[in-house]
């Protein structure tokens, strides 16, 4: 199931959104600058903006169905079916499109565009994930003011119920942080606006409003959840408080104990931005949607996604990568020759294992998310020995995988790099890495969930 493809609007022959014409059907009064849309008048809140966009989107879908409803989207082969729906175009996903050659585009913006165009913190260089969330939901680049309002809203909603705190505190430290994460998110369901509204019999057309509130609450509470897990498992169990006037990544860094390192906070901003969304066919995204299609609320849906993300062929690969690199270092030293590294990679393959961090179901070139992290490393930690080893692998592993001849994509994916950056800044607990991936993934899948209920 993880290989099914999702489609964007242009697949149905709608006017293509391009950089010079980003919103061809747009009728609202806006100004354009640099190929993206900015508001002309009073900044709207995110919820107000969604409300405005819904009728437009509904019309668009009606039109697509009327004009293209019977159009075939391609052949389905037996191989595709036995391959777990591999390559079958099966669903629409609003927020992102994954091009096999170009990598991910968030609402028509590549990662390099996001790094350039999304609002940053004062003096910062990386995009704020709040801006990315706004982009994923609306297709628009928010103003700095709108992003600050979102940071403040998320901080204001961040408190978690005491019974959820106790639940996390009662978990044995030996329970994997991802299992604790999933457990805590399920428990938050106690306060689901959507579940309560559904029980009260609200009408279908207002479902999205409750899903929106749940999604905003859930995203807001994640720092307190994961901070508590981290503090319990690896530290003294005391969780610092969220600061109401700081951005999401700063607060996440703070609960983990890294807020004084501004480069680490910047890394988190980049990390949360690039891991957020990767089309709809991957395990975590598809699971969120699948579970929510039964009208399970966002908490139930996202906790299911976390269980998928915890698999070693999905999010857990970042943990596996660091382990594999440490084993490599332990067995051949910190500065091995290319020949020795090549032999180590071959040994992994000969023992029937995959080389973690390499390969992808859809991508057919180096993951731009890998390149964004490499760019960050070249700027902030060019002489780190572990980064140098990662760079050496970047040249050797693809050669070996090509020679091995099985892997369709021999290039590195996002997970080949993330752990090494976290190690550098002192977040050394590998079992925690996928938890950070999960925080980021919430942004992408919940943005989609709001639209699923609205449409
Ligand atoms: C991501 C991944 C699951 C995609 O799987 P996929 O779509 O089946 O990939 P392919 O079509 O290229 O697989 C063809 C063969 O190459 C193998 N292969 C793929 N990536 C490989 C890797 N990194 N190392 C060794 N073998 C690999 C597959 O296991 C498969 O072997 P099989 O025919 O014996 O089953 C796979 O590349 C992988 O396991 N990578 C390592 C884990 C990882 O980094 N996951 C994070 C993904 S973002």
Overall description:
It comes from Acaulospora colombiana. This is 9215_t:CDS:1. By secondary structure, the protein is mainly alpha-helical. It has 19 helices and seven strands. Helix 4 runs parallel beside helix 19 (433-454), helix 6 crosses helix 9 and helix 12 (283-292) runs antiparallel to helix 13 (298-309). The radius of gyration is 22 Å and the shape is globular. Coenzyme A (COA) binds next to loops.
Keywords:
455 residues; 19 helices; single chain; three-stranded antiparallel sheet; binds coenzyme A; globular; mainly alpha; two-stranded parallel ribbon
* Structural class by sheet pairing and helices: mainly alpha
H-E order: EEEHHEEEEHHHHHHHHHHHHHHHHH
Number of helices: 19
Distance between the termini: 23 Å
Low-confidence runs of at least 5 consecutive residues: 13-35
Hetero groups in this structure are: coenzyme A
Q: Quick one: biggest sheet? A: 3 strands, antiparallel
Arithmetic mean of pLDDT: 92
Counted beta strands: 7
Oligomer classification: single chain
Biggest β-sheet: strands ordered side by side in the sheet: 5-6-7
Sum up the overall morphology in one term. Answer: globular
Radius of gyration, rounded? 22 Å
Helix content: 55-70%
User: What fraction of the residues are assigned to beta strands by DSSP?
Assistant: 5-15%
Organism: Acaulospora colombiana
Protein name: 9215_t:CDS:1
């Amino acid at each position: 199931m993880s290989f099914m493809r999702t489609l964007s609007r242009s697949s149905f022959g709608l006017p293509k959104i391009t950089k010079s014409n980003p919103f061809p059907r747009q009728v609202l009064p806006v100004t354009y600058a640099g190929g993206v849309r900015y508001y002309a008048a009073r900044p709207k809140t995110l919820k107000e903006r969604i409300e405005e966009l819904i009728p437009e989107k509904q019309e668009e879908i009606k039109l697509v169905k009327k004009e293209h409803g019977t159009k075939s989207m391609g052949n389905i082969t037996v191989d595709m079916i036995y391959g777990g729906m591999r390559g079958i175009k099966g669903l629409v996903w609003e927020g992102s499109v994954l091009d096999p050659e170009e990598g991910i585009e968030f609402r028509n913006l590549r990662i390099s565009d996001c790094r350039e165009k999304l609002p940053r913190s004062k003096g910062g260089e990386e995009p704020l994930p709040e801006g990315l969330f706004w982009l994923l939901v609306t297709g628009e680049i928010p103003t700095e003011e709108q992003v600050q309002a979102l940071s403040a809203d998320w901080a204001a909603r961040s408190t978690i119920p005491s019974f959820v705190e106790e639940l996390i505190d009662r978990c044995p430290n030996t329970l994997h942080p991802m299992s604790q994460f999933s457990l805590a998110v399920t428990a938050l369901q106690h306060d689901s606006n959507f579940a309560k509204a559904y029980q009260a019999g609200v009408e279908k057309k207002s479902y999205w409003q409750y899903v929106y509130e749940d999604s905003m609450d859930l995203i807001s509470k994640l720092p307190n959840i994961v901070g508590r897990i981290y503090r319990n498992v690896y530290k003294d169990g005391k969780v610092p408080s969220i600061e109401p006037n700081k951005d999401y990544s700063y607060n996440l860094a703070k609960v983990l104990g890294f807020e004084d390192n501004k480069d680490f906070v910047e890394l988190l901003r980049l990390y949360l931005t690039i891991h957020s969304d990767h089309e709809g066919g991957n395990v975590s995204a598809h699971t969120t949607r699948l579970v929510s299609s039964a009208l399970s609320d966002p908490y139930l849906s996202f906790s299911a996604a976390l269980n998928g993300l915890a698999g070693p062929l999905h999010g857990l690969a970042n943990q596996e990568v660091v382990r594999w690199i440490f084993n490599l270092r332990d067995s051949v030293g910190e500065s091995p020759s290319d020949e020795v590294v090549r032999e180590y990679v071959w040994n992994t393959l000969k023992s029937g294992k995959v080389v973690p961090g390499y390969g992808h179901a859809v991508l057919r070139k180096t993951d731009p998310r890998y390149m964004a992290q490499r760019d960050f490393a070249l700027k902030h930690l060019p002489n780190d020995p572990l980064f140098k080893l990662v760079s050496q692998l970047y040249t050797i592993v693809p050669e070996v995988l090509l020679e091995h001849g099985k892997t369709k994509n021999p290039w590195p994916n996002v997970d080949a790099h993330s752990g090494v950056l976290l190690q550098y800044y002192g977040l050394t607990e590998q079992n925690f890495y996928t938890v950070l991936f999960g925080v980021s993934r919430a942004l992408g899948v919940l943005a989609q969930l709001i639209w699923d209920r609205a449409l």
